[in-house]
Records
---
Amino acid sequence: MEQTFIMIKPDGVQRNLVGEIIGRFEKKGFTLKGLKLITVDSDFAERHYADLSAKPFFNGLVEYIVSGPVVAMVWEGKNVVATGRKIIGATNPAESAPGTIRGDYAVDIGRNVIHGSDAVESARKEIALWFPEGIAEWRSSAHHWIYE
Ligand code: GTP
Ligand code: MG
């Protein structure tokens, strides 16, 4: 089934939003397949955001991501990449709808609490980058209560 890479950024960890954010994905019906608290260095953050290296905010973005521990996760489910982005909300919290994570918990675009893969292919690359050790093999016993 489809998988996505979700990361609670350093501000989300420092602001004690980890349980709230995990709860939203759990309650939706998605399955947690990988989870770790990790502090990354600049080289790693630059690899994760390589597509944005030409942007004027790139250095600030990398400094933000290395500024404290993040919670790296793999979530699985039908359409989890696109639906995960909807749960997260628009990049700029000024435009994220209430009810989304960024809409409810963030103010500034440079402190927007959470990352989610933007496509199935980028999810695959990000999961390989963040979980080279692999992820859990399990199937939720709630599966048939969530899928027809
Ligand atoms: P991610 O899930 O973190 O990848 O966000 P996104 O896919 O919604 O946006 P994008 O990949 O374009 O940008 C990555 C991150 O860079 C954003 O989440 C912001 O934290 C930051 N960012 C994007 N645009 C700006 C900007 O104009 N100014 C600043 N300061 N940060 C930005
Ligand atoms: Mg992105």
---
Amino acid sequence: MIRFEAASKTYPDGTIAVDALDLVAPSGQITVLVGPSGCGKTTSLRMINRMIDATGGRILLDDQDIGKVEPAELRRGIGYVIQHAGLFPHRTIIDNIASVPIMLGRKKKQARADAMELLERVGLDQKFAHRYPVQLSGGQQQRVGVARALAADPPVMLMDEPFSAVDPVVREQLQDEFLRLQGELGKTIVFVTHDIDEAIKLGDQVAVLRVGGRLAQMATPAELLSN
Ligand code: ADP
Ligand code: ADP
């Protein structure tokens, strides 16, 4: 479980991006952060893996104050998926996926075998394994991004608009596959989007933020639909 306790972030120029946010992201569930551009979604997400450190309050991961955990150690348990996949351009797909486990000490052969399995799980044919990212479509690259984040089998996944840069048809496929995968894996997921329909489709619960970095509403998709 991830818990924000009055967590805040004020940037050095004085911008209050996140303002005393109280939020719980339960284990095994998808918590969506939704709201307009600039409301602090990305900042909130990056505070969880300490790419950005909070300037006030604290964030707990399974009751441990993440401010007291080394960022590198923290990130071993936290996968991170961004909008444009962020794949290493000079590595093949299979090596992109296997890179983190290898870095963590897993044997190359085993890591590559695991990566092959992950390719299938995210709905990509194994023929893509030895291609380079530029040879894949945007939607396919996003699948690889998800596979790479899953490769270290982290209990927590942070996802920042992972499906926003692809066309609507592919987006829907990716969302459906993501839900199917999460049904099997049961990760603790914090998912950022500006798209309320996506939030309602994917979230077990939805945190609606407003500009200024405050929580406007915490609701289930059903509650949001009835409003
Ligand atoms: P969102 O993800 O909801 O679009 P962000 O978390 O990216 O929002 O940004 C929240 C606010 O913080 C915005 O006003 C943004 O301009 C500001 N901001 C983001 N990064 C920085 C930064 N490095 N320095 C100053 N202000 C920033
Ligand atoms: P999608 O509908 O999934 O976004 P695209 O229409 O972009 O897919 O691509 C269709 C097919 O063309 C895919 O199988 C993809 O792997 C292939 N493809 C796209 N770009 C390249 C490229 N630069 N080199 C080789 N194959 C490519």
---
Amino acid sequence: MPKGILVVLEQYNGELRKVSLELLSEGRRLADMAGLDLTGVLLGQGVKDLAPVAASYGADKVVVVDDAALKDYTTGAYTSVLNRVIRDEDPEVVVMGNTGIGRDLAPRLAQRLGVGCASDCVAVAVDSNYKLRFKRPIYAGKAYAEMATEARPILATIRPNSFSVAAPNSDRQAEVVEVAASIDAADLKAIVKEVIRQASSRPELTDANVIVSGGRAMKNSENFKILEDLADAIGAAVGASRAAVDSGYREYKFQVGQTGKTVSPTLYIACGISGAIQHLAGMGSSKVIVAINKDPEANIFTVADYGIVGDLFEIVPLLTEEFKKQLA
Ligand code: FAD
């Protein structure tokens, strides 16, 4: 079999995460262009049923490592197993989501394999030699760098929402190979005893297609209710600027920006956010940006596709009403 592209798949609550579907969809397109095979790797417990799903999104082969020790993510166990799978599969390229897990795994795997790692990439191209080149933002999103390496495989983490998800084809079949975990005891430095998940009906910030974010102008945590109402009307996640987080209006896990989360939704609605470079670093690759700010000179308007100059406390409830009417 020709060597190809290997996608490290992430699953959550028995479903493949959206970023994994994006990587399979784009991986299929690139594999076809470069004449490569597409392999998905599934780690976890009771995950074999997800192999046909990976096939329907384009995988030619799915490597399944099903073991109780992989039920919850741990750095040591996942690094150990993936290091072995990658060496056995010998792909040209290994890609994973630029998620908490991907950011933790990729540099460790690169070190063990002795190869380079392109992190937080937003685009991939095939060059004239049929080699993949990865594009990533640098200088807080002010410029882009293209990365390629001679050493194989090249490892890359891809920002969620960088690629669209193709329509699944349930007729597609993949070769499913089950591999024993055989984790080296020395690699099990941490054992997860319990995972406590916070219940929320809103999408996770980095997966969300639409995000409504609030800044210092929200004045307090209670006022975020108007952003939550808007978010719930359109199925969005709620984010915040660092000023809002530092002021205690929102927890740190909701911070968007250079020292917070990097997001790339289809629609980002910035409410009372000035548009500091560190905020733009985390959301500048959003497909459509809407800014609501009472200062017409605010920097956020330099990146916004649509700008509303005015008081967010008047505009946001009007938007919510209108969306509710339109979506009723
Ligand atoms: P402000 O800059 O104070 O802007 C508030 C805006 O609200 C103003 O534009 C104002 O016109 C508008 N406004 C006020 N009242 C209303 C109203 N009623 N209706 C409409 N508009 C109104 N920031 C981040 O966001 N994320 C990061 O990850 C991050 N990392 C950083 C890392 C470093 C190393 C440093 C130095 C800074 C970082 N910052 C980050 C901070 C960043 O520089 C800004 O201070 C911060 O983004 C400002 O947040 P803000 O836009 O909410 O507040």
---
Amino acid sequence: MLQDQEVHAAEMERTFIAIKPDGVQRGLISEIVSRFERKGYKLVAIKLVVPSKQFAEKHYHDLKERPFFNGLCDFLSSGPVLAMVWEGEGVIKYGRKLIGATDPSKSEPGTIRGDLAVVVGRNIIHGSDGPETAKDEIALWFQPKELVSYTSNEEKWIYGVN
Ligand code: IDP
Ligand code: MG
């Protein structure tokens, strides 16, 4: 039979979250990081990078037929992006909830985009939309050795597991 800790570990998932150049330039890093941190998710990787246009095109490859693709990739590669991996139970789906709808004019108040952004082309943050994308995006942005596995002292209080 699985021990509590093993069940807990098996349920852990990781998602790729990035603060786009507009969020970085607007000084919103600490505000955004703190929302994930205070929720109880665990930061396992973080770095500030200026992606090349080619890299941005890889990241957004599934949108290449969309009319805004070129402008979007120009924008993502226009300045520093804060790339992160966050870990926690249900973090992929709930991370998207914290972020809010793609178009900030439709995002609920209380969400990151709802509270901090106005237009879809400058919606300050990216989050993986499912387990497969999360896996692909983490592998695109980070080398395995950049992902830090550790036990947070808070976990037993967040999950109630000894
Ligand atoms: P998501 O970021 O909420 O997952 P996607 O549909 O994957 O939304 O689109 C990726 C990004 O492309 C959005 O975050 C936004 O910056 C941009 N985008 C999406 N739709 C439009 C649009 O209609 N006009 C301009 N930019 C858009
Ligand atoms: Mg998306």
